[in-house]
Amino acid sequence: MRRVLKVSLAVAAIAAAAVPTAASAQYSGGQQTRPGQSTRPGQDDPQAGEQESQTRAPRIAPLRRRAAAGPCPFVKVLYDAARYVELTGDRVSASNVGFTGEIEGLVSDCAYQGDDPITVQTRILFNLGRGPQAQGDARTYRYWIAVTERNRAILAKEYFDLPVNFEGAQTATVTQDQTIFIPRATATTSGDHFEILVGFDVTPQMAEFNRSGSRFRVNAGTPATTPPPAQ
Q1: Between the CA of residue 144 and those of 59, 83, 99, 116, 180, what are the distances in Å?
Q2: What is the DSSP letter of 137?
Q3: Which side of the chain, N or C, has fewer Cβ within a 10 Å radius?
Q4: Cα–Cα separations (whole angstroms), residue 158 to 28, 92, 218
Q5: Which of 103, 147, 123, 97 lies closest to 32 in space, CA to CA?
Q6: d(CA 73, CA 182)
Q7: How far apart are CA 111 and CA 149, in angstroms?
């Protein structure tokens, strides 16, 4: 699915929301000339359930390289919104997990010449899951893309629906492509003047859970498959 986000520089004058710093955006676009994907420093909370024991390579197809007169905008996943975990009850445990999601991969590329707008192509890989408390076989997740002047004002932010039908499975993988147009004030305004952030639409409680470093796998609470008996 592809949609287009167009940025108006006029929005910058009235944007009042605080912009997260680069340190808060932990995952960067793997195809740009930027540092590769990184994780938040420190250990996961041992009481948060199943933990990621090792880094997994994202299964995401690269984008076609395009010509740009300068550097591309920084494209990152906001750490606080990188995962979506529904929790029920009063205890953080795998048995209380509903629907889950994780932004598993993000690649991007851009093109601009002269004083043309910057056209940014992004590809986002989502891993989604159904925990023991998930009701039903389908869920519409929501995520957002925000364009900012780097470490300053938000220029534009748009929300996107991500409908998922698990069709009886516990997990699903979805890839979405988005196109972003960013006008430039002059021909000397380069792409690294801007930053593009991506994240799930999460509640304050979900954001705090993510911020603490706690996490579940997207298949949290799924019974392990019993291996066949030895012959």
Answers
A1: 21, 13, 18, 25, 12
A2: S
A3: C
A4: 19, 31, 25
A5: 123
A6: 10
A7: 18
Query: For 121-157, how does the pLDDT look when each residue is reduced to its tens digit (9 = 90+)?
Result: 999 999 999 989 899 999 999 999 999 988 788 899 9
Lowest mean pLDDT among 52-61, 140-149, 159-168, 205-214: 52-61
DSSP state of 112: B
Q: What are phi and psi of 9, to 5 degrees?
A: -65, -20
Tokens representing residue 167 in the block:
């069709």
The DSSP secondary structure of 22-91, one letter per residue, reads GGGEEEE-TTSSS------SSPPPTTSSS---S------PPPPP--BSSPPPEEEEEGGGSEEEEE-TTS
pLDDT at 18 over 50: no
Structural contact between residues 123 and 138, judged by C-beta atoms closer than 8 angstroms: no
Position 154, amino acid: I
pLDDT of residue 91: 74
Give residue 85's Cα distance to chain centre.
14
Question: Minimal CA–CA distance to 200: which of 146, 114, 142, 152?
Answer: 142
How far apart, in whole angstroms, are the C-alpha atoms of residue 106 and residue 177? 10
Task: Specify whether the CB–CB gap between 178 and 126 falls below 8 A.
Answer: no
Q: Are the C-beta atoms of residues 194 and 183 closer than 8 Å to each other?
A: no
pTM of the model: 0.71
